[in-house]
Amino acid sequence: MSNSSNQFIKNTILKLLGAIGSDKEIKKYIEKFSSPEQRFAVIKVGGSVIENDLENLISSLVFLNQVGLKPVILHGAGPMLSANLEKNKIDFSFINGQRVTSTEVRDVAHSVFLETNQKVVEALKTQGANAKGLISDVFECTIEDPNLGYVGAIQSVNDKLINDVLESDSIPVIAPIGFQNNEMLNINADIATVELVKAINPYKAIFLSDIGGIFNSREQLIPNINLALEYDEFMQEEWLHSGMKLKLQQIKSLLDHLPKTASVSITKPINLPKELFTDSGSGTLIKHGYSVLQHQLPNKDVQEQFTNIIEASFKGKLVDNFFDNADDLNIFMTSCKRATIAISNEFAVPYMDKFGVIPEAKGEGLGAGIWHEMRKAYPQVFWRSRPNNPINNFYTSICDGCQKQEEWHIFWIGISDFGALKGCIENAINKPRSVI
Q1: What is the pTM of this model?
Q2: Residue 178 to residue 155: CA distance in whole angstroms
Q3: How many domains does the chain fold into?
């Protein structure tokens, strides 16, 4: 390996380690992802990333290689293909996010995919990472929709070929090309990624894009999506364009096939290490998710489960009399019993008394999911938090207002009447501690 390659690797590791989380977080995830029983990750790289952000992509992949993690890469080439088709004056169109593929489009697609694949492989090799391009023999397909032309519906994935490349200490770089006998077929790269993940069953599935996530109608990044709670809502949103709807449909199909603990991330190449190795992540984390149940007049089992979550989350003891006024309590709890919210209705405006997620579930999106459900039920709510609470940044980002006192920060949503707000603040300040 050349001195310039060594220096590149050294600078890459220093840059990425400095940009992400603590050593403890990084070590935790490296140990988790290094299990010999399960492959590390399938990473889908969008064509625009290769075209516009290749350096950061290679930096992140080299970093993973240096810490002993070898992902399976599947790349697209949509922008390059469109540009080549326009240059050659070949008409093309899309149906529900998939490119209609004539013989002319297919022939250009093959040359573009081949060139793109070689570009990624050579860039990895130049920086000291072993990589092997896989152009054929990965996806066995059939043509199922004549309206799409030469577009393959994947019937099987040659996971043995991919595993052989991984066992030879190389990174597989796969093009979305399928075959039906000797007939070459175009495959939507997102769909190919889903089938690849189903075949390999890795810890992580990651989609790298130049925008780095899913954004709402206000152009705000959506950090977590709980499909069990939010999928139907998202699919009805007009601001979610057809390509992203197809991606979300495919991700749901993927997660329906995998264990409940599985997740899919959408992020930028430069943020890939942070998404993988920190609890906070970077981008949009999508999980199949868990339902959220509401418990009024909580029974003994619910009280015990709530207590366990809160005491683990706050590293303290819930006061013995917390459930004395159970008539006024509404408990929200995920079906996995790992996150909970308690709303007290004893005051004129609902008060969020407790919000907890067990430490082991941090970064899984459970907090965002249960918060989403609580807010459906309570358009008005106020709460307090210690000044050093690590989730105060989240509270600040979603609240309508905050008053900072020496002992407590008081937050509120949906309260516009000044008199009511003053009463809420006084009530929050004077409440006794519920965790000691």
Answers
A1: 0.69
A2: 10
A3: 2
